[in-house]
Amino acid sequence: MDLPPELVERAAQELNETSETRAAGLKALLDYYEAHPEQRPHRTDAPYLIMFLRHAKFDPVKARGRLAAMERWLADCRDEIGDVTALRGEQFRAMYEEGWIGILPSDRRTRDGAVITLLLPGMMKPMADPALLLRWNLWVLCRAVHDPYIQVCGQVVVESFRDFSVLQSLRLQQLPHAIMKKNFKFAQECMPFRMRGIWLVWQPKWISFMFAIAKPFLSAKLRARVRMFGSDLPSLHQLVDPDVLPAEFGGSSTDTGMHWFEAQVKAEAAELRALDAAAAAASTE
To answer: How far is CA 166 from CA 150, 156, 205, in A?
Structure first.
């Protein structure tokens, strides 16, 4: 639960986080759920609760509100997501191998420290199961429990529309309305880390039409964080070192998120082995 040294001061200044507020906030949540078991979320382990406390700047009441929103979202998405405990990174390998979505590791962040999620919709293929997007959101959140950088510094979504055709635009618009609505709801009401920006490059002129379609689903705060750079990559590079970005964003890296994905799949497998070993040891006592 302790932060890396380089995040301690920032967490204190921006999130009101100290060892004292951490302990007090966690105790307040656990005490509340002990007194109100009907409101207890599906997870009450300390790392999970602290992630929501960080987003709420260690206000237990606000943290409870977002935790409750997460539980409502999970209930609303029960048919699409299924058993939460059965989610595994390998279920999303095809998405990552297509190369249209990815999260960069913590040593490749924005100049302000935010974690970077990349989107390249021009590489996206038709989805046989659009609900995979909802399951991916939840899996990423589960992995974020172990990532203090995204919890403290937030994230930005950087999206390139280079070589993005009208046909691909139509495919995106054919994604079920209910799935897209739930996707936006997760981002705005449930996700327990700050969205610092949605930055678009190489967007065609008609992308404003698509943005107008999505606009009703976005909060005023989120709409204000959308920036359209077009071909002005130097302005983007003022915010993100081009060395951490792939060529589609004017950078020199060859990785669009597969390194992070492979590391998380490996870490997840190790965690599951440790749980199995602990369960086996407990059964022999």
So the answer is: 33, 25, 11
Average pLDDT, the chain: 92
Predicted TM-score of the model (pTM): 0.91
* CA-based torsion, 21, 25, 28, 34: positive or negative: negative
Phi, psi of 196 (to 5 degrees): -90, -20
Q: In what order do the strands lie in the sheet with 155-160?
A: 101-103, 115-119, 155-160, 195-201, 226-230
One-letter identity of residue 284? T
The pLDDT score that the predictor gives to residue 167 is 67
Q: Between 180 and 109, whose confidence is greater?
A: 109
Find tokens 């997840």 and name the residue: 268
